[in-house]
Amino acid sequence: MSTALPAQVDVIVVGGGTSGNVVAARLAEAGRNVLVLEAGPDFGPCGDPRWPADILDATRLGHSNDWGYDSGDTLDVRVSFERARAIGGCSDFNGTTQTWGHRRDYDSWAEAGLEGWATDDLLPFFEAGTKAMRVKDYRVDELTSWQRVWFDAAPAVGIPQRHNLNDLDEGPAVAPESNNIVDGIRFNTAFAYLDPVRSLPNISIVGEAHVARVLVDRVVATGVEVLWRGESHIVRAQRVVVAGGAFNSPQVLQRSGIGNPDFLRSLDIPVVQPLRGVGENLHDQPFSLMSWAGSDRMTSEMDALRAEGWAPDEQAMGKAASSFDPDVFDLHFLPYSPTHRGDVKRWSCGVSALQPVSRGYVRITSRDPEAKPVIDHRFLSDPERRDARVLAEGMAILREMASQPGIRELVGEEIHPGISAVPTFDELVHFVERNPDNYWHPVGTCPMGSADDEKSVVDARGSVHGIEGLTVADCSIMPMIPRATTAMPAVVVGERIASFLVQN
Fold it and tell me: Residues in domain Glucose-methanol-choline oxidoreductase N-terminal (predicted)?
């Protein structure tokens, strides 16, 4: 493995994040000469002392080496959209929860004409990703007191207890989380996928290498322009795989002249391929965090666990169904008890609407790859107010759980938003709309679809419409978000696209 910048390779993978590392590893294993270009640092293999402590610490969310994205002035409140700018991508930052979703999610893609994306097609990749990421389940007896109280409360509202949540035919349930934690370390895709191939002579991993644009000769991608060590370099390749994620992949395409022609001309970018869907269809699962006062018993038990050195912020999760999706489920709820706030205690449980209908966009503001884009999720903007109402129903479910005998004595009084402040369902809906937040699962900005669908950007194999040798491989190609946290689905996208590329 070389860290120098080669002049030419078989395949360039733009972005060493969750999906990109999977693609790079699988292609290197297949004998392709692969170059991974990561805009942030490459900290080396697992065990290298350069890895930041917060990225390794599986008890809480990571935060260093962030892209610095947020909602800007698109929302009444500023919402941070944390994304890791480092090898491993957002698998460096996440809460280590690995959920798969539901069969209907992926079967609906296949039913829309995306061959190879049905649930049964993807099951081998879910299994391969689970094995590579060393996913295991917490046991019930491993749950902290705050996590356990919500697990125990769920049956009272009709939500059964399970050992994990990854039965793709299952409806509402609560379970200890499936997680990618190894010896207390968040086991990211750099460890899981790149480390086994780092010693191969046919893969190069270059950090601090920010791709400005893809080079296209007529209708063929021929390489990239990359900013590395303060200078612009050209690297040629037979294929370019863009894997920057839902925020960054559309930016790379737009800077390359691939996108809405009217928008590109407004920035004086020559139009290489007019694709109006680039950067559109952005959606994430809106989120609301509720908090309770706790109790003396809860504080004492959690303090004891923290003193022992292992009290993860997240350990259990539930799936629930709103009235909008009674046959499957469309809500997640997860207890959250931060361990890194010193004497400040927060006893929280969050809820997320998993099938949002609101749509936004990502648009560059300049040809400069370091210029921040406009990221407008348009959270909760659907005119029927469905997204806000689903979230409010989820909050009402949490309130019902918290009021159960034996539970309310442990969780204490609701302090956010507070029943006295927001006592009715309609006021819950208004509260949600006034306080938009995200679940860190953006998707959809380069969606799969047929070439005659002006909203689509890539075909079912991730190939960009009208451009030979150019592929997108990350959550941006999802036409609709699955009912899941997207960490494992992102791995599966990498596995699925890699399998197509190996066949070429």
Answer: 245-259
